[in-house]
Amino acid sequence: MVKEQKIWIAQNAEGKDYYMLPGMANRHGLIAGATGTGKTVTLKVLAESFSALGVPVFLSDVKGDLAGMCFPGEETEDMKNRIERFSLAEAGFAQKPYPTAFFDIYGKTGIPLRTTISEMGPVLLARILGLNELQTDLLTIAFKIADDNNLLLVDTKDLKAVLNYISENNKDFAAAYGNINKTSMSTILRAVVALETAGGEIFFGEPAINLFDFIARDPNGRGMINILDSRSLIQNGTLYAIFLLYMLTELFEILPEAGDLPLPKLVFFFDEAHLLFKDMPRVLTDKIEQVVKLIRSKGVGIFFITQNPRDIPDGVLSQLGNKIEHALRAYTPADQKAVKAAAQSFRENPAFKTEEAIQALGTGEALVSFLDEEGVPCICDRVNILPPESRMGSISDAERDQAVKSSFLYSKYMTPVDPDSAFEFLQRMGLEAAAAAENAALAAANEKELAKQKKQSDAAKKRAAKSVGNAVVGTVGREVGKNIGKSFGSFGKTLGGNVGASLGRGILSTLFKI
What we know:
Largest sheet: 12 strands, mixed
CATH class of the largest domain: Alpha Beta
CATH superfamily of the largest domain: P-loop containing nucleotide triphosphate hydrolases
Low-confidence stretches: 487-514
CATH topology of the largest domain: Rossmann fold
Order of helices and strands: EEEEHEHEHHHHHHEHEHHEHEHHEEHHHH
Number of helices: 18
Number of strands: 12
Shape: elongated
């Protein structure tokens, strides 16, 4: 609830009210406690209060029990008792719905959330892919080559197409961009394929989410509560981390420097944070720590909700100034150590032993320590958390579907778009190259066939000419033979005549003289 422009969140046994200062929300916060101790109620009370102040909220719903915020709470006997106990009616408590928008990266139970490879950028993408320094440099070069050649990187198939194109033509790029090792490019490609398997194929695409759509208010001036259905997503820690890093990094880049504002611009709640950081690569943890440290200057607050403070990396935990600790159980030596560490993170209250109090807390009770106007943590106290005004628990599929489709963002993001990007361009270029090669081969084959035909034609002509020549020679020979025959025939006949007789006689007389 909001009281005197402060977030009224709890009351101790003596009736003292406890508030969180909205201006200190950008110093981030922690809500911790064992299962069933009341973390979800605390989250809802904070989210409703920020919304009532006009501050937009983004929260991940891991169990599906936050969706009821779009409906008013129910007047149960327990709720009546709590309203009376805290004197909430006099303070203006009313069971009511809050403005909500439902999102789902997979697009099944909410408005899809997407971004493009280009918007993610090579540096953040390299961290997500777990690339080393050399591979990161090569990925950066790949982005540069894509930019220089007007190759739009929208989804993973675009990135794979560009990586394959560069690898196949690495010698052509060596002079302008340096040597490009094919083995390293193959390693990057395998990492991209692994990212696809982890859900990147769905997350990267168009239309990309405009993060300013999260920073919105309803017509009554209340901040929108943007609920990400993470029931399936949380099973994919890598994709969950990708989305978290992208949003925080992108917000840090697009929001102007703001410092400490009276009201934050946007507040994030990441439920079941122990699942977020579980098995997360060190590079991702370091990046989250860096972003958490820096984004406070942009007026953005982040609250992590988890079972045990030790689930949060120390570098991140040290940045969380507002603490709400529900009960922890110490059944093992490791649990006892965790309880002791949690107790030591509070300013000690001389009225009780913090370590013992944490283990004795009942459902709905918590130890709280908020930052004062100077940013100094207050002494912790044992309190009872106020109830939420919206419905507890989940909603039906029909109710969710109606809520999703009633959002003004539904028509903007629901239908995916596959634009003409690097994959299509390189595919066309490959088809054109193949067609050109095929045409060249066909032209060469035709030229060869024409040459062969010409050769055969010339050979045929030669044979024909030779045949004609032989025929002419034969005819001439026959004619000559005939003429010679005729001549010799006449000659014979002449020999039989006068000249022949005299010639014969002359020859015979010469012979006899010899």
